Every structure is written in structure tokens, then in C-alpha cells.
Recover the amino acids of this structure.
């Protein structure tokens, strides 16, 4: 597969930065957000991540923020790729972009981990839980990220934001999504003051694991990261236990040897977390609501022809299904 970027212009730019060398670019498929490529320049093996082409909503696809958080986390216990450089000159390849270290490892897109032994499945999931706890233990002030987002009232702001995005969508009506949004707004917990660096999309498919060992080598895709509540990330991370195999690869209703229960996964997180409050149904329902609206947005972009993935058109119906799953979580607690 070849890239539609101007490789000659990129090669000239890289030659000025690193010295003349042959440049090759290979798209990495599967993403819905910022186009990403394997980049080789001479003996350097890197990853290039850029904004998509076309009109961009204010604050969306902020590759400068991704670069900033990756660079800030470099000397923390959170495993991230090493940053190399950021370029804000859109004339080079059409948009701003950044370069980071290419980490060799494994990416799992199927939460069932079908090609792994039971013991490895368990260890992979628990490593993910421990890694999330490490992220939330990092104090933003300590790594110059105190202004990376607005502290406090995270859920109130997020529910307002995603509710507006849903209201502004041109999608067909989804009554369950309306009901879920209304319930979340009416049952929001009081602000408890917990603020951490929130990844925003912390899931198995955004982890790079060691080639042979069951541990996270790098956390990827920081596009949605901000200062937020740690339980927003944890609620998002346990969604596979609340969605089925045909709903973005969930594990609900399956019995797979080695995969920890939801309770065991949460317990592993809490064991390594810094005084985290307990996870409530609200947090899981909020995660399902947010992802439902994201799926609606993907469907909207597919209709307009600006989606980044060929799978976008098939993901749109998941908005309604995730909304239904959110209502199930709420009803199970009553």
C-alpha cells in the first residue's frame, strides 16, 4: 500500500533535519482519527502521525496535544513511545504532524485474545489495568501538564459536550441515546475533586504489548487525552464486559479461559491506583454513552465522505447498540 502524501517533499524536509536518505512511508490501517504511518528515513525507523485532510472541528485531531502529552510522560512509569519532533508547517505534507519512536510489539484488536494461552490472556489484561493505574497516579503538575485541561466538574462538562454533539448530528433518531443522556445528566455524582491525566480511549487495541511477554510496552492514540476523572478511563476500559462480540469486539456472554472477570480487572487497577474511589454504574454508562456518540459521529463522517476508515460506514449502527447497553447497565443496578 502506498501513501497519498508528497513523499518527495517529506524526504526533503527530513533530509534537512536528519541528513539525506531514502524515505519510505507505509499507512497503518484501522484508525478512525489521525492518519498514522510507518516511516523509514535511511536507518531511522519512526512513526508519523498527522491530522486528516479536509475541514476539522475546533480542538479536534490536535496532534500538537498528542505530542505534548507523550513528551511529558517520557520520564514517568507510563510506557509511551519516545517523541522525536513536531512540525506545525502544513505546507510539507498538507497538515501538521509529529514523529515518534517505532516500538516493535504486538497489537490485539480482538478482546477475546483467541491466539493466546489462558495464562497469557490473564496477564495481558492485568498489565493493562496496572498501566492505567500508573497513568492516573502521575500528577499533572509534576510533568508540566497542569493546564492540559480544565480540572473539576469533568462529568458535567463531558455530558454537556457529548449531548450537544449528539443533538447536532444529522443521524436518524435513537430514543435509547436520548434516554441515556437524560439519565446521566440527572444522576451525575457530585464532584469529588479527583483529577488525573485521562487517556480518553484506553482499550486493548490502543496498547502495544511486548513481542513475547504479557506486558504493555506503549500506550498509543492520545488524541482524546485531557485532564479528567480517572473513573472515566476505568469505566471506558471495562466496556468489553458490557458489549458483545459483534459490538466492537466485546466479550459479554462469552466464557474465555484466562480472561479475568470485570471485578478482577477492577481489583487489579485499584491495587495499583492512588486512592481511587469505587467504580459505579454511572461511570460505565457514561463510557457507553460517549462511545455511542462517537459511533454516531463516525457514521456522519461516512455519509459526508470524510471518514478515515473504510469500516466507518459499518460502525454507525453501533451508536444505537451502545446506547442500549448503557441503559442495561443502569437497569441492572435498580
Amino acid at each position: 500500500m502506498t501513501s497519498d502524501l508528497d513523499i518527495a517533499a517529506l524526504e526533503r524536509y527530513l533530509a534537512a533535519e536528519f541528513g539525506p536518505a531514502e524515505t519510505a512511508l507505509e499507512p497503518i490501517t484501522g484508525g478512525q482519527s489521525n492518519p498514522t504511518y510507518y516511516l523509514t528515513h535511511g536507518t531511522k525507523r519512526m512513526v508519523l502521525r498527522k491530522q486528516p485532510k479536509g475541514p476539522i472541528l475546533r480542538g479536534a485531531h490536535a496532534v500538537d496535544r498528542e505530542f505534548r502529552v507523550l513528551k511529558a510522560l517520557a520520564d514517568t512509569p507510563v510506557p509511551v513511545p519516545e517523541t522525536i519532533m513536531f512540525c506545525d508547517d502544513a505546507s510539507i505534507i498538507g497538515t501538521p504532524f509529529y514523529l515518534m519512536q517505532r516500538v516493535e510489539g504486538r497489537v490485539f484488536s480482538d478482546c477475546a485474545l483467541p491466539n493466546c494461552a489462558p495464562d497469557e490472556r490473564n496477564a495481558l489484561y492485568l498489565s493493562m489495568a496496572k498501566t492505567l493505574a500508573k497513568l492516573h497516579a502521575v500528577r499533572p503538575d509534576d510533568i508540566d501538564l497542569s493546564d492540559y485541561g480544565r480540572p473539576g466538574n469533568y462529568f458535567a462538562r463531558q455530558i454537556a459536550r457529548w449531548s450537544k454533539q449528539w443533538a447536532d448530528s444529522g443521524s436518524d433518531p435513537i430514543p435509547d441515546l436520548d434516554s441515556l443522556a437524560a439519565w446521566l445528566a440527572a444522576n451525575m455524582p457530585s464532584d469529588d475533586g479527583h483529577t488525573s491525566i485521562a487517556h480518553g480511549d484506553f482499550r486493548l487495541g490502543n496498547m502495544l504489548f511486548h513481542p513475547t511477554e504479557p506486558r504493555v510496552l506503549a500506550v498509543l492514540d492520545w488524541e482524546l487525552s485531557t485532564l479528567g476523572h480517572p473513573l472515566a478511563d476505568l469505566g471506558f476500559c471495562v466496556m468489553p464486559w458490557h458489549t458483545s462480540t459483534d459490538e466492537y469486539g466485546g466479550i459479554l456472554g462469552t466464557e474465555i479461559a484466562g480472561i479475568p472477570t470485570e471485578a478482577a480487572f477492577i481489583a487489579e487497577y485499584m491495587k495499583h491506583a492512588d486512592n481511587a474511589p469505587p467504580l459505579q454504574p454511572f461511570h460505565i454508562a457514561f463510557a457507553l454513552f460517549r462511545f455511542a456518540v462517537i459511533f454516531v459521529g463516525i457514521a456522519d463522517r461516512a455519509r459526508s465522505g470524510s471518514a478515515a476508515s473504510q469500516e466507518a460506514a459499518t460502525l454507525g449502527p453501533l451508536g444505537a447498540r451502545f446506547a442500549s447497553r448503557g441503559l442495561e447497565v443502569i437497569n441492572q443496578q435498580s
About this structure: The CA atoms of residues 9 and 38 lie 17 Å apart. The chain has two domains: 7-101, 118-333. The first strand starts at residue 23 and ends at 28. The beta strands are 23-28, 36-41, 44-50, 83-87, 97-101, 196-198, 207-209, 216-219, 226-228.
